[in-house]
Write a structure and sequence with these properties.
The protein has helices spanning 51-54, 115-118, 138-144, 155-158, 166-172, 178-181, and strands at residues 10-14, 27-34, 37-42, 46-50, 67-70, 74-84, 99-103, 106-109, 124-135, 148-152. By secondary structure, the chain is an alpha+beta fold. The protein has one domain (3-185): VC0467-like (3-Layer(aba) Sandwich). Strands 1, 2, 3, 4, 5, 6, 7, 8, 9 and 10 form a ten-stranded mixed sheet that branches. The N and C termini lie far apart (43 Å).
Length: 191
């Protein structure tokens, strides 16, 4: 797979037809996508668990709401940090120590690094328990079958203060018929 065909750094937005409860109305940020598979985190599944309760050193840097998000159904006991570094610039390797660029100003945080090392650099931080993963070719098949829309990410998507509104908001900003999908009712049988 060429870098141009990689979906790394793009959003997967669940279509209304996607019935899997793990991904119904999900917005997934793809952190890695290549010929071996894909890995991402669901941006709009907050949990009731405060970051303070599980990763206290990072709690002061976590954006609102200051809770852990369920990144996906895989490895729920593991944690991933995704952060926006506003001065991330254009150089692929630029950015603070302990941060790896995914796309633009969005990157992964090394949660084993001292938070003080990154505190002055971060614009926003989210902590995710678990992740969403796909084997080789699996995600491409799901996109072709109509389970996902693939759209561009904006840095504010990572730190949306109202994650329950993210699915509609991402669709609404599209300049195509996808904007109309944002009005799709939660339960079409009640329409």
């Amino acid at each position: 797979m060429t870098e141009a065909s990689s979906l790394t750094g793009r959003l997967l937005v669940a279509t209304p037809a996607l019935a899997d409860p793990n991904f119904a109305r999900a917005v997934v940020l793809l952190l890695d996508h290549d010929e071996e598979g894909s890995l991402g985190v669901v941006l709009n599944r907050p949990t009731p668990v405060n970051v303070q309760d599980i990763l206290e050193p990072w709690a002061a840097l976590a954006g609102e709401p200051g809770v852990v998000f369920q990144g996906g159904p895989v490895s729920l006991e593991s944690a991933l940090g995704v952060a926006v570094v506003p001065s991330g610039g254009g150089e692929p390797d630029s950015g603070p120590l302990g941060w790896r660029r995914v796309s633009g100003a969005i990157g992964l945080i090394d949660l084993d690094a001292p938070p003080a090392l990154l505190a002055g650099e971060l614009g926003s931080l989210r902590i995710f328990a678990g992740y969403a993963g796909w084997g080789a070719g699996q995600l491409e098949d799901e996109v072709e079958e109509g389970a996902w829309y693939v759209v561009d990410v904006e840095p504010g998507d990572v730190s949306c203060p109202a994650p329950q509104l993210l699915w509609r908001s991402v669709l609404r900003r599209q300049r195509s018929e996808l904007a109309l999908v944002a009005t799709y009712p939660d339960d079409p049988s009640l329409n």
